């Protein structure tokens, strides 16, 4: 493991608390900012989407990911490394290829951060 890897979102007790539930402390805000920064690039967002769309326990070979972009393989690998360091995906080398998958629960944890409490009696 790299010494730059971040804690996977939600490993602490307050994992599923909404941003609207209470103000973030400085440490948690810093952790989340790194994750959102990783997702702030269109290539990384597309890569995460391609990997996540394989479904639960799904995985995708880096060879498939590289073909979807007009970018070099080292550039794709760099983007994947940043997603790994943010705690969003993991990988395993099998022969000459590397396979990627979304870490269990990560997308649900991200989604739970952005949920706002529903006001009683308010309709859309």
Please characterize this protein's 3D structure.
The chain has 124 residues and is α+β, with helices and mostly antiparallel strands. Helix content is 42%, strand content 11%. A 3-stranded antiparallel β-sheet has the order 1-3-2. β2 and β3 form a beta hairpin. α2 (42-52) packs across α4 (73-85). The termini are far apart. Mean pLDDT is 82; it is low at 1-14.
User: What's the tally of helices?
Assistant: 5
Mean pLDDT over the residues: 82
Indicate the radius of gyration in whole angstroms. 16 Å
Compute the number of strand runs.
3
Keywords:
disordered N terminus, three-stranded antiparallel sheet, elongated, 3 strands, 124 residues, alpha+beta, 5 helices
Topology (elements, then pairings):
Blueprint: H1 26-39, H2 42-52, E1 60-61, H3 62-67, H4 73-85, E2 89-94, E3 97-102, H5 106-113
Helix pairs in contact: 2-4
Short description:
The protein has 124 residues and is an alpha+beta fold. The protein has 5 helices and 3 strands, in the order H-H-E-H-H-E-E-H.
